Amino acid sequence: MPHDAPSPSERAGVRLVILGAGESGVGAAILAKQQGFDVFVSDFGAIKEKYQQELKSFNIAFEEKQHSEDLILNASEVIKSPGIADKVSIVKKIKEKGISVISEIEFAGRYTQAKLICITGSNGKSTTTMLTYHILKQAGFNVGLAGNIGNSFARQVAQENFDHYVIELSSFMLDDMYRFKADVAVLLNITPDHLDRYGYEMSNYVKSKFRVVQNQTAADHFIYCDDDPEIKAFMATADIKSQKHPFSIEHEVENGAFLKSDKIMINLSNSDQFDMTINDLALQGKHNVYNSMASGIVSKMLEIRNESVRESMGNYKNIAHRLEFVANISGITFINDSKATNVNSVWYALESINTDVVLIMGGVDKGNDYSMLLDLVKQKVKAIICLGKDNKAIHDAFEDHVEVMVNTFSAREAVEIAYHLAKKGSTVLLSPACASFDLFSSYEDRGNQFKAAVKEL
Question: Domain for residue 48, yes or no?
Fold first, then answer.
């Protein structure tokens, strides 16, 4: 039986409570029901109609807009949505009772024998996960895509039969994972993000990210950025048992990937040498060289042919809302980077653009420190258009460094003003650095409204 799963007789009548009825929670409920548990789903908010219908079709009990303690605190184990913080009252009560709280990924990992490729990092993890999945799929692998993207891991374990999974893991998911083991762990970078969930201690956040290698043995693999100061500092004292595969654009490395004369070089002990000119990559910009190196190491570890890896890295299309090309109108390029909800993501976006920029940013500020953007803003940004209800922090950070700053309160207004401010050959970039919930229902909604407004020009 894989990954410490209880036997069928042990599962019968055991009560599993699932907090949160989004894709992750409903997927976990379907797998739990399939495995013979007594399942109950509780969501403090409203449950989407499609998920209610699904729960009913599987005969799974649920409640919405409340957490009934008498129905929750009798659980043997609780599967918690990654979006629910530990400081929430019901979670505190569950833990006070000594009830185990785990993530959907931890739960699903018990019921699959597939090889698990797990990717985390403060930035680039969605792109790297999608690129890795694309390379494996193109090479003919029977592979699933899970985690923060698409159908939940648990749902796929219940309903599919993949040999490999490429899984994007956030720090919130990792926090509730204990016995789960990645066969291949990838750590792209660590920069300040979500520090409100980590007691505003960077060291807590770093430890959370490094949970991606917990339980790994000498038979497993750890792929990491050798240029990242937080990763290097932690590794200097950590006891990591897996085989290490560094990647760097600053120096040559062994058993990993590095940059040499504008070529990515991958040298692994188990495969032939791989090289590819960075100009041939579908994903441009320094950060995407790192992402491509990480995906390339995974590919060569799995002994995918060089021609296949090169072809996939050259024809990949980026995910929606992440440096997504929208249109070129009157010589002005419009880019939707609505998924950039932290400052570091905006840094990556600006770094990858080689023209003058009209930058649209703003929203719900998570206590952002904008100082890291100053040099790039001074070099490239001609105007900043604030899209949000409270733009004081952005004004304080940048009004002395750009020629024009404008406040707007809708995507259409922001796009129309940007179009008039931009010159031929420049780029209008939506890269907010903030959450979307002041004016939009989600970063996807913000990105879609931006795209619709561009198409109306």
Answer: yes
